[in-house]
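Reminder to self: tokens first, then the designed residues, so the page reads top to bottom the way the pipeline ran.
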């Protein structure tokens, strides 16, 4: 089978949430082209989605050994290291990704998530400057109205808007918004995140 076709079908499977199929398809492509950094990176993405974190870390490192300038690989490794509760190395990986490609909003946003909103102001500003349609960024910036204008279904924006309405003494409006925000339990003392 054609390597590029297998890879493409694997990416489609990953996008549709079928990480197992993606693992199979991209794995088959990688067996034909083992030193391909993009294939190694995307196979690691499938492994990460399946919860195979040690194998994902190995895959990202393999991709970066082949192509050290792969910004996406550094960003993915940074995200994985954050999941593994390794904040320092996560931040370093994200910074390395940005050093390679400063013009990708998602890389700046990932750094923001790694360092936290209280320390990530410049990363947030850069991400929003590069991509003003980054709805999650507007939530963190405190502009839930703009976030909802971009993504009316974004749970974090709905929860933020609901909390504002609740604090303003408008419980009906708050309930309407919070009911559309799965996973957010502001009314019962739960955590909004």
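Designed residues (193 positions):
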């Amino acid at each position: 089978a054609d390597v590029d076709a297998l890879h493409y079908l694997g990416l489609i499977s990953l996008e549709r949430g079928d990480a197992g199929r993606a693992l199979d398809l991209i794995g088959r492509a990688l067996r034909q082209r083992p030193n391909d950094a993009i294939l190694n990176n995307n196979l690691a993405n499938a492994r990460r989605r399946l919860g195979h974190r040690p194998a994902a870390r190995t895959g990202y490192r393999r991709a970066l050994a082949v192509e050290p300038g792969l910004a996406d690989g550094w960003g993915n490794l940074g995200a994985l290291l954050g999941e593994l509760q390794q904040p320092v190395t996560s931040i370093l990986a994200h910074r390395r990704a940005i050093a390679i490609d400063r013009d990708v909003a998602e890389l700046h946003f990932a750094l923001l998530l790694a360092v936290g909103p209280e320390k990530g102001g410049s990363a947030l500003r850069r991400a929003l400057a590069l991509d003003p349609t980054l709805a999650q960024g507007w939530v963190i910036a405190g502009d839930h109205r703009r976030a909802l204008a971009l993504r009316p279904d974004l749970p974090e924006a709905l929860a933020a808007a609901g909390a504002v309405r609740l604090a303003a003494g408008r419980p009906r409006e708050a309930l309407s918004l919070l009911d559309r925000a799965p996973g957010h339990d502001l009314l019962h003392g739960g955590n909004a995140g």
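DSSP finds twelve helices and no strands in the chain.
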